[in-house]
Design brief:
heterodimer, A: 622 residues, alpha+beta, Aldehyde Ferredoxin Oxidoreductase,  A, domain 1, Aldehyde Ferredoxin Oxidoreductase Protein, subunit A, domain 2, Aldehyde Ferredoxin Oxidoreductase Protein, subunit A, domain 3, 6-stranded mixed beta sheet, globular, B: 165 residues, Alpha-Beta Plaits, two-stranded antiparallel ribbon, 19% strand
């Protein structure tokens, strides 16, 4: 079977390591990836643990298909821990090559606890696990770290997942990167890793990964390969996600200048079309996946000539239109710098746009920025601010490194009104005033503002619903989306490939059965998806979050109508419709009006051991 | 023995290869009934995102690996030109590994003998599975033909376009 049924425990304080077995029941109920990761986090943590405490477990975890030939799922891993930004549970996934190597080393999961007294990296060479002094890697980018470790270990095929300077300096939007361009991006997992003095995880795995039914698995993979050449992946193989720039701009859903507008007059100049024509030099792929989606840009001329970076929509939106920047060369450079310092490309763009908004409104001044003219559209200021954030340089860098929510608290005055985050996590590139199913979906997401927890923007963008209002029925759309995506992220299928699952959960169940040999059907998978969402919600409740007052929207979304002429003019989310949406969502979930899962619901999902947490919360609400 | 002109081998096209390693998984699946790139007879190399190529045995004339073997464990097939390893004779000394300029003969991670591409009895699975059609089962003559055609096409892009109109 394709699980190893082994967990590696690494105590960074003592240097002790241990391998323990994983039981089958957990594997079936939580699948792997984010589901199993969050379950393991709950079981290995104490309530109220600080994200930067040595007692906050940092979990690297693979999925049931990792290490197999399954396209897009064969190469993945997830990282789960308490978020440095939200203070709730966080998970993030990345593809590339690292995940498969970790599985082949013989582990479904690695749980790091404690804190090393100096910077180290973990060198996992199959059964041999060592903590290696990494002080010489201090300040290195994740990419340099990868190169250096590969040379030190002397094996070209060693895979590395590492933090940059930002993670070391506890920048709360720090990410973890593997295989040059792939990121455990959201929620500040890099800062948690930095707090443990863990610079990198390097892996060499030489073991077989076997599937339960090789012949049928092979045939199914062949089918998926064929489907990957078809319409379901067209977008990702051609223009890539940057196609969204003009699509969202056309429907007034492209947040511009920190959500001051919903269309960008410079959209054509930073479109996916222009990017592909002038900048994309090659489109490559991850291990086992023939879809190829990695659009690698090379700046052909000008001051940033020669800069190379992978470009996707969210990051290019965040450092582009959201900052009022209409220069593709500066966008590629900004993303390159974000990757070098190791910060989340979405969050960093949103926090810079926030600072630009404050600067334009006089809430921060040239004195605060050490002379930097932080106006919207200033490409140099954008690139410089990213570098300062990544290294916590100066007042500006150090303040913004705390993420939008904390920076606003620190700055005071009306700064919070310009802070576009939910639960502390910065918004991705969809204007929630003109995509209101997305507004509901993003607000209830357990990791904060996230387009990938439910895909709730999709029915809005595709015109399946009236995107300018929230009404009864949206709750179910969000719930179904969440449960499905929980399954996708627990199998750790790449979401770009979700369309090739023509039969949806039926296909996913088949994949699971053929790989693991365990019984599974679509219904059981969907149940697992629901279980995982309830689990995450209860974890957040245990951590003092995760009730109705935490399911919020940014001030601008609810108070500043879209000013752009056209169909969207005047759009804003009202408290009344938002409440209708929340009520509907909680009711579909089987939760109380306060957004707390009921003991009955938890028992139905086999989460009996979590009942005491919700009961305590319900009592406090009485 | 087929002549050097007739011998078919697995050829990789760096302009198409994306470094996805599907070939490695297909190879280990075919030969070892498992997924394990370290047991693959073809290995993908990504130097940077722009430079990717999968490398397998080139079926050399007078193969240096065969010449290097002190135990006569290696021979070249009269029929196809593939390198045959006599696993009873091979002791994993690795002279052949050193002799190969392409890293196409490797030490098996478990069996303590060397292994290399056997062309899957004429139906190389890596070629079959490569999602980018970056691998070809072909002869050196055809490779050069194709390269010539591509070069000429590139040189006369404009002329070709106007010719069609």
């Amino acid at each position: 079977m394709s699980y190893t049924k082994r967990i590696l425990y690494v105590d960074l304080t003592t240097g002790k390591t241990e391998v323990k077995p994983l039981n089958k029941k957990l594997l079936k109920e939580y699948i792997g990836g984010i589901g199993l990761g969050m379950k393991l986090w709950l079981d290995h943590s104490k309530a109220g643990v600080d994200p930067f405490s040595p007692e906050n477990p940092l979990i690297f975890i693979t999925g049931p298909l990792t290490g197999t030939m399954a396209p897009s799922a064969g190469n993945s891993y997830a990282v789960v821990s308490k978020s440095a930004l939200t203070g709730g549970i966080n998970e993030a996934k990345a593809h590339g090559f690292f995940g498969a190597e970790l599985k082949r080393a013989g582990y479904d999961a690695v749980i790091f606890t404690g804190k090393s007294d100096k910077l180290v990296y973990a060198w996992i060479d199959d059964d041999s696990v060592q903590l290696i002094d990494a002080q010489h890697l201090t300040g290195m980018s994740p990419q340099e770290t990868e190169e250096t470790i590969r040379e030190e270990v002397g094996d070209f095929y060693v895979r590395v997942s590492a933090i940059g300077e930002a993670g070391e300096k506890l920048v709360r939007i720090a990410n973890i990167m593997n295989d040059e361009f792939r990121a455990i991006g959201r929620g500040g997992m890099g800062a948690v890793m930095g707090s443990k003095n863990l610079k990198a995880v390097a892996v060499r795995g030489t073991n077989d990964v076997n599937v339960a039914n090789l012949e049928d698995f092979k045939e199914f993979v062949r089918t998926i390969h064929e489907r990957m050449k078809g319409p379901a992946t067209r977008k990702y193989r051609t223009l890539g996600t940057p196609e969204n720039v003009l699509v969202l701009n056309a429907i007034a859903a492209l947040p511009t200048r920190n959500f001051s507008q919903a269309t960008f007059e410079g959209a054509e100049k930073v479109s996916g079309e222009r990017l592909n024509e002038r900048y994309i030099k090659k489109i490559v792929g991850c291990a086992t996946c023939g879809m190829r989606c990695d659009h690698i840009a090379l700046v052909p001329e000008g001051e940033y000539k020669g800069t190379v970076s992978r470009i996707e929509f969210e990051c290019m939106w965040a450092v582009g239109p959201l900052c009022g920047v209409d220069r593709l060369d500066a966008i590629v450079e900004a993303i390159y710098q974000a990757n070098r310092y190791g910060v989340d490309g979405i969050s960093v763009g949103v926090v810079v746009a926030f600072a630009m908004d404050l600067y334009e409104h006089g809430i921060i001044t040239k004195e605060d920025t050490d002379g930097l003219e932080l106006n919207f559209g200033n490409a140099h200021a954008l690139v410089e601010t990213i570098k300062r954030i990544g290294s916590r340089k100066g007042w500006l860098g150090d303040t913004l490194a705390e993420g939008t929510m904390r920076a606003a608290e620190k700055i005071g005055k009306d700064a919070w009104k310009y802070a576009n985050h939910i639960k502390g996590l910065e918004l991705p590139g969809y204007d929630l005033r003109t995509l209101k199913t997305a507004a509901l979906g993003f607000s209830v997401s357990f990791r904060g503002a996230c387009h990938l927890r439910s895909g709730a923007y999709s029915p809005d963008v595709k015109g399946k619903v009236d995107r300018f209002k929230i009404e009864k029925g949206r709750g179910k759309i969000v719930v179904d989306g969440e449960d499905l995506y929980n399954v996708v992220d627990s199998l750790i299928l790449c979401k770009f490939s979700r369309g090739v699952m023509y039969d949806g959960l039926e296909d996913m169940a088949k994949y699971y059965r053929l790989a693991t040999g365990l019984e599974m059907d679509a219904e059981e998978l969907m149940k697992a998806g629901e279980r995982i969402n309830n689990l995450a919600r209860v974890i957040n409740i245990r951590e003092g979050k995760g009730t109705r007052e935490d399911d919020t929207l940014p001030w601008k979304i609810m108070n500043v109508p879209v000013p752009d002429e056209g169909v969207a003019k005047g759009a804003v989310v009202s408290q009344k419709e938002f409440d209708i949406g929340l009520d509907d969502y909680y009711s579909v979930r089987g939760w109380t009006k306060d957004g707390i899962p009921t003991p009955e619901k938890l028992k139905e999902l086999g989460l009996d051991d979590l009942v005491k947490i919700v009961k305590k919360k319900m009592d406090s609400k009485k | 023995m087929p002549t050097i002109h007739e011998k078919k081998f697995v050829s990789g096209d760096p302009s198409k290869c994306i470094g996805c390693c599907v070939c490695e998984y297909a190879c280990s699946m075919k030969h070892e009934n498992t997924y394990n790139p370290t047991k693959s007879r073809i290995r993908a190399v990504r130097l940077n995102p722009f430079v990717n190529l999968a490398v397998a045995c080139r079926l050399c004339e007078d193969p240096p690996c065969v010449a290097a073997c002190p135990r006569d464990a290696l021979s070249q097939s009269e029929e196809t030109g593939v390198i045959i390893v006599d696993e009873d004779k091979c002791n994993g000394c690795g002279w052949c590994v050193e002799a190969c300029d392409y890293g196409a003969i490797q030490l098996h991670p478990e069996r303590k003998v060397v292994f290399t591409c056997d062309l899957c009895d004429g139906e190389p699975q890596c070629v079959e599975w490569c999602p980018e059609e970056a691998l070809d089962f072909t002869t050196k003559d055809i490779v050069s033909q194709k390269a010539r055609i591509t070069a000429v096409k590139k040189l006369f892009q404009e002329a070709l376009k106007s010719g069609k109109e």
